[in-house]
Amino acid sequence: MNNSIIKKKYLKSMKEKVWNNEERNKKVSIKLSGKKKTIEHRKKLSISHIGHKNSENSKEKNRQKQKEIMKNPKNRLNLSIKNSLDKHPQWKGGISFEPYPISFNRKLKKLIRERDNFKCIICKNIGNIVHHIDYNKKNCSPENLITLCRSCHGKTIHNRSTWRKYFNETK
Ligand SMILES: [Zn+2]
User: Fold this and answer.
1) How far is the CA of 123 from the centre of ligand 1 (A)?
2) How many domains does the chain have?
3) CA of 100 to the centre of ligand 1 (A)
4) Structural domain of residue 137, as residue ranges?
């Protein structure tokens, strides 16, 4: 017998005896509820999940589960509180509420857009937004400013260091 047959047999017996054993599953879930996984355990899990793809069936199951959860207004509220303000992964300490320095005005923006031919540096469509390459709104030197369109500017919110490097190389 080769290994793959042995593995299949093993998985089948596991399914029958262990995974599909509801009584056992209940016991385990009661035992584990409220327990947090250690960082090491989580790391091991994430490594073992690399390359694993959920089947369409289980994806659909997850979608339905998520839908059920979101039907409950209490869950929706909890999620919005969880993601609001400083708990949001994109929160950078309130910098978007800081006022722009006076030098970053219409005139300067127009000059920058003029310099870049009113075109988005990334996609070459018409660009209306002047972006700070180093994400520092106080740094309004022309070398730190670049013209983007709305759609491309949206992309620069994530992966900041990558974009900074990209703009510094392309300008
Ligand atoms: Zn663009």
Assistant:
1) 4
2) 1
3) 23
4) 100-170
List the alpha helices (DSSP H) in the chain. 3-14, 22-32, 39-48, 56-71, 73-83, 106-115, 150-155, 160-170
Tokens, residue 104? 């970053």
Between the CA of 103 and the centroid of ligand 1 the distance, in Å, is: 25
Q: From ligand 1's centre to the CA of 112, what distance in Å?
A: 15
> Is residue 162 included in any domain, yes or no?
yes
Task: Please tell me the distance between residue 132's alpha carbon and the centre of ligand 1 in angstroms.
Answer: 15
Name the residue type at position 153.
H
What is the rounded distance in angstroms from the CA atom of residue 168 to the CA atom of residue 146? 10
Residue 63 in domain = no
Tens-binned pLDDT, residue by residue, of the chain (171 aa): 577 788 888 888 887 777 778 888 888 888 777 777 788 888 888 887 777 777 888 889 989 988 888 887 777 766 765 655 455 556 565 555 555 555 667 888 888 899 999 999 999 999 999 999 999 988 888 889 999 999 999 999 999 999 999 999 887
Considering the domain boundaries, does residue 155 fall inside one?
Answer: yes
Cα 140 to middle of ligand 1, angstroms? 21
Residue 47 located in a structural domain: no
